[in-house]
Each structure stands twice: as structure tokens, then as C-alpha cells.
Design brief:
single chain, alpha/beta, 7-stranded mixed sheet, 3-stranded parallel sheet, 12 strands, globular
Length: 205
Amino acid sequence: VLFQSGRRRLCLIDREPETKVDYDFVGSDNAGGTYTAVRHLHSQGFNRIAFLSHKSDISSIRQRIDGFLSAAQDFNVQVVGNPDAGTHYKQEKRLFIEDLRAHIKGLAKQLPLGVVAVNDQVALDCMNVMRDEGLVVGKDVAVVGFDNEPAGAFSNPPLTSVAQNGQLIGKTAARIAVGRLEKQQERHSRIILPTQIILRKSCGE
């Protein structure tokens, strides 16, 4: 938050609120990241896919599921979703990590299955549940995370993940903030930075 000549200005990172207040924003290409994840799963032969998240509707989740569904349509892969109606954003098109064990028997009838997880922690939790139920990650189930957290590189198998450039996000936000302080800029910026998929073994690579 910047205070400039008595005026408060917002520079937000990663998540966007539902508000009419003007603000600067720097974030990752969430939709592009999950689009790439689906494309990779399809290239590995996984033509049934699920989007797995926790029960939340923050902006980054909405963007990631939108990219996931766009790729599913483009690559003609089957989306395995939740049959129960609910209040969460596009619930019928995704699964929740909180309910994953309850869905295992049904999912086991739809193997091989690709999973795009909303973040790496959800992906790692998914892999643990799948292994506990006797499924082989990388063969029966392929899993892609998001964020490229260090723990994913040391999981069993190592986790394929979509990487964000956190350092560049921070530098870009700082540049915007300094520019506002020095140049009295009036026009708001919305900058979306690219992501990159990091290939490991969780998709059978």
C-alpha cells in the first residue's frame, strides 16, 4: 500500500479481490499454467483428467480452473468432476482434496487418470492418498502441481509442477511502486508474468 500526496494506492500481488477500487496488480499466468499442465498430461497419454483443489474460490483458483477447462476442451480430454452441486466456483468441474478419499473407489474405475492440483501441497497430499490406496503415481495416476515448491523435487516420485517466477513478480511490483512515488503515475498497471512447467517423474516422464 502506497500513500502518495494524501492518497492511498494499492499494488496487489498474486490475488485479485472482487472490488471496484482501482489498484495495480502483478501476478502469474495462472490460466496459462494449468493449460500447459493439461497439454502435458495429454501428451503423456492421460486423457481423463481432474482438477483438484481445496474448498476456496480465490481469484488464482478461478483462473487456474478456467485454464484447465479451456485446455480440456482444446485437447478433447474427459474432465472427471464432482457430481454434487455446490456453491463453490465450478464445483461440478473439480474435486476437493478434503473429499478425495471418498472419491477413490469411483476414480479407480477411470484409470489412468491425470490430476492437475491447484498447488504443490494439494498435489503432494493427493499423491499420499493415492499411494495409500494402492495406486501407482506416474502410471495409474499422473499428478501436476503448481508453484514448484522445493518439497516437490524430493517427493516420491518427484513432482512435475508449474513454476511461478516469484522473484520477478516482487521486482515488478517494486518497480511499479517506485514509479508511482517518483513519477506520480495515474494509469494503473495489470501485469501478468509467464509460468513454466518443470518436468519430473509424477506423470511418467
